[in-house]
Amino acid sequence: SVHRSGRLAMDNEEWVTVDAEGNVEREQAQQFLTGRTKDLCPNATEATGFVPASVCAAYGAPDLGKAPIQLLISVHLLSFYQGLGASLPVMAFFTALARCFDVLSDPLMANVSDATTSKYGRRRPYIFCGGFVYGIIFICLTSPPVSGDAAGLWFGVFYV
């Protein structure tokens, strides 16, 4: 039996296309889905239509270095700065400011990296340089030379 869903339909666990008169065409559905898969997932293999796990791991690898540091920041940093005497409202303000800045900077940086032409690729130069900058900022963020209200300002400068 054919279960319709717009142009595409499912017939005995196989995708088919159904025209206005109800005629079922299997070849056209396969060509449509193959083209759609290539558009949405250019790294997908022809045989399966899935992106191999090794490619997924390669794309996800840069996040493995960033995730533990973000966890440390989100769980322990505020209590660390409160222990130094920083004001919680000041730190909340800078945290919100950082999120607002992300809303503006993320699409901007996406456009910049999309337009980048480099022999290393569009994203790799930014990942490489950003790793060093991120490391330096993390060191500065976790080792403030001041305490009290000045520690809140230090947090704001290096968190945003």
Note down, in words, how this protein is organized.
This protein has 160 residues and is of the alpha+beta class. The chain is built from five helices and four strands; from the N terminus they run E-E-E-E-H-H-H-H-H. The chain is elongated. The model is unreliable at 1-5 (pLDDT under 50).
Short description:
By secondary structure, this protein is of the alpha+beta class. Helix content is 64%, strand content 9%. It contains five helices and four strands.
Q: SSE layout and pairings?
A:
Blueprint: E1 2-5, E2 8-11, E3 14-18, E4 24-25, H1 26-40, H2 53-83, H3 88-114, H4 124-142, H5 149-159
Antiparallel strand pairs: 1-2, 2-3, 3-4
Helix pairs in contact: 3-5, 4-5
Biggest sheet record: 4 strands, antiparallel
The CA-CA distance between the termini, in Å, is 57 Å
Order of SSEs: EEEEHHHHH
How many individual helices? Answer: 5
Q: What low-confidence regions span 5 or more consecutive residues with pLDDT below 50? A: 1-5
Label the structural class.
alpha+beta
Q: Tell me, what's the shape?
A: elongated
The proportion of residues forming helix, as a percent range, comes to 55-70%
Please provide the count of β strands. 4
Instruction: Give the radius of gyration.
Output: 25 Å
Kindly report the spatial arrangement of strands forming the biggest sheet: 1-2-3-4
Average pLDDT rating: 81
Q: What is the percentage of strand-forming residues?
A: 5-15%
